[in-house]
Specification:
The protein is an alpha+beta fold. Helix 1 crosses helix 3. It has a five-stranded mixed sheet with strand order 1-2-5-3-4. The protein has nine helices and five strands; from the N terminus they run H-H-E-E-H-H-E-H-H-H-E-H-E-H. The relative contact order is 0.14.
Length: 252
């Protein structure tokens, strides 16, 4: 009888462990499917991110190339752009800089700079409103920049505040002027330009320095037109996601 009792207990113990092993095996299968699903989801997300980064890079490079070809692509255009207009194109930031377009301390758009804008802005907008670029542009910023100096002797903080007001007035006056240019390209795209164009006064927050580290006051006093693409604002977040997935792609 004892043999029968022990045999029954051994059988029950064996059946107990068999049922646990079945449960564990089932859980392992579930976890495996979850892991595979996560990996597939991660790979899809990574591919989506890479596609977005690639689209951003292509738009940036193509737009930069067109701006270069339009304003610096020939010796005649380059001479007009760099020498007469005092313009500089930055391919990295998609910005066009005009050096010292205003009289010191003045926010009224000078006649000579109006002449530059009359020629420059329609050609500029003609490129930005092309089908391949228009929908990808979030903003066209007109940025007013100053040196850190102020023509009256004031403290550093007061000079910064005064230059902030001055740079904002200059950017706003340039915006107002270019919107009123009577050119078919401007007139036909007026609503899109009004939605996209902004005026930003940056005071002396983004100075330009010489190679020796000294502030270049002449270069710092400038107005810039800068294109911001719709994907540009997401680049920081995207790069953080790429780091999570062990990727190292960056936008240059």
């Amino acid at each position: 009888m004892l043999e029968n009792l022990f045999g029954l207990r051994e059988k029950e113990t064996e059946e107990h462990w068999v049922s646990i092993s079945d449960v564990m095996a089932g859980l392992m299968v579930i976890f495996l499917f979850i892991a595979i699903s996560y990996m597939l989801h991660s790979n899809r997300k990574t591919d989506q991110i890479k596609n977005l980064l690639g689209a951003h890079t292509n738009l940036h490079e193509d737009l930069s190339r067109e701006l270069h070809d339009e304003f610096e692509g020939t010796p005649m255009n380059e001479r007009q752009f760099r020498t007469i207009w005092q313009g500089r194109l930055s391919a990295k930031s998609l910005s066009i800089r005009f050096k010292r377009p205003f009289s010191q301390g003045d926010a009224v758009v000078p006649e000579n700079f109006k002449n530059v804008l009359d020629e420059f802005f329609p050609r500029y907008i003609a490129i930005l409103t092309k089908t391949e670029y228009k929908d990808g542009i979030e903003e066209i910023r007109i940025e007013g920049h100053t040196s850190s100096e102020w023509f009256d002797r004031v403290g550093i903080d007061e000079a910064y505040y005064n230059n902030m007001e001055l740079s904002q007035d200059r950017a706003r006056n340039v915006l107002q002027y270019v919107l009123e240019i009577r050119h078919p390209t401007i007139i036909d795209n007026k609503e899109w330009i009004k939605k996209s164009l902004t005026a930003n006064g940056l005071s002396s927050s983004k100075l330009i320095f010489d190679s020796d580290g000294e502030q270049n006051s002449e270069e710092s006093r400038r107005v810039e037109f800068r294109v911001v693409t719709k994907s540009e604002k997401l680049i920081g977040e995207i790069q953080e996601l790429l780091k999570e997935f062990g990727r190292t792609e960056v936008i240059k």
